[in-house]
Specification:
Largest sheet: 2 strands, antiparallel
Strand order of the largest sheet: 1-2
Radius of gyration: 34 Å
Shape: rod-shaped
Helix content: 55-70%
Structural class: mainly alpha
Strand content: under 5%
Number of helices: 14
Length: 313
């Protein structure tokens, strides 16, 4: 008789628990299908899609590179070209490349990495944030929710949920102990014991089933997932060498290039005595850190030579 009671009670509890899990699966799957269907019909502006992938600064640098406004060398240092320095040339029509061009001009004539601008240039960050905010405001409301929405249940319902879990674990332990100590007699009791054991085993896997449901119906960033399947036209138009240079410059946020960068001026060399090594100061720049280290070494040598002279005197 005890086996029959355990079988009925364990089966009922297991059915109730898995009914709740199934209801949660149905609700979250329906919400996920609705969000994905809405996002699939959206065609975000290329720079907005790049912003959702955190590639908007790279895309802007690629457009400036293709437009001849700047040059990026193999070490990731971006420098303005003559066209980029020309104030009379029409700037890019999109606000992000225009903001990046102004940022590079603020560092001119010092070369600077794109990553440094994208992380530390305050004016560029303000304009980039304003663009992202304006574009996000045009999206349907549901796509601006970063995670699958959940209702605020309140403290009372949370406490009830904790009590329910405690009661469920207590029932599972008690039923297991009774099932082990009650020896079945006859095929009916053996069958009831098997049903009770299977129900208790199913309850043991309920937590894993709930986690699997949440993982398979997750819809945390649907618009970002949709945007990750796209490539900005400017990045797609780069060749492999240019793409590597842009990526390297965007990944570098700690290199500050300086400062031998001389713009050619015919009035500075009236006799035409400039040699090939002096032309186009674009190739005659090194790390500012190297300059500082060399100056310090030179000063140290002078101090040592002065002290040696005094000792000899």
């Amino acid at each position: 008789m005890l086996q029959l009671v355990l079988a009925v009670s364990a089966f009922t509890v297991a059915a109730a628990v898995y009914a709740v899990i199934g209801l949660r699966w149905w609700r979250r799957a329906r919400l996920r299908r609705a969000v994905l269907g809405l996002v699939a019909g959206l065609e975000p502006e290329p720079y907005h899609a790049a912003e959702l992938r955190s590639e908007e600064t790279e895309a802007a640098a690629a457009e400036l590179l293709l437009g001849g406004y700047l040059d990026i060398d193999g070490e990731g240092a971006a420098r303005l070209t003559d066209a980029g320095r020309d104030p009379g040339r029409t700037p890019p029509g999109h606000p992000l490349p225009a903001a990046l061009l102004e940022a590079v001009r603020r560092y001119d004539p010092e070369p600077v990495s794109i990553g440094r601008i994208g992380r530390y240039d305050a004016e560029y960050l303000i304009r980039r944030s304003a663009y992202a905010r304006d574009r996000n405001a045009l999206l349907p409301p549901i796509t601006r929710i970063p995670r699958t929405p959940t209702h605020d249940r309140g403290r009372l319902l949370d406490c009830c949920g904790c009590v329910g879990i405690v009661l469920l674990v207590s029932f599972w332990c008690l039923a297991g102990v009774l099932l082990l100590h009650a020896y079945p007699h006859g095929p009916r009791e053996w069958a009831a014991s098997a049903v009770a054991a299977a129900s208790l085993a199913a309850l043991g896997f309920a937590e894993g089933a709930d986690r699997a449901v949440r993982a398979r119906t997750a819809c945390e960033d649907p618009l970002g997932d949709h945007a990750r399947g796209q490539v900005h036209p400017a990045l797609a138009a780069l060749d492999e060498r240019q793409r590597v240079h842009v990526r390297r410059s965007a990944d570098d946020d700690g290199r500050w290039r300086g400062v031998v960068h001389v713009v050619d001026d015919p009035d500075d060399d009236p006799d035409g005595d400039r040699t090939d090594g002096d032309e186009g100061g674009d190739d005659d720049w090194w790390d500012a850190y190297h300059y500082r280290a060399a100056d310090q070494d030179h000063e140290g040598d002078e101090q040592r030579s002065g002290s040696d002279g005094k000792s000899l005197g």
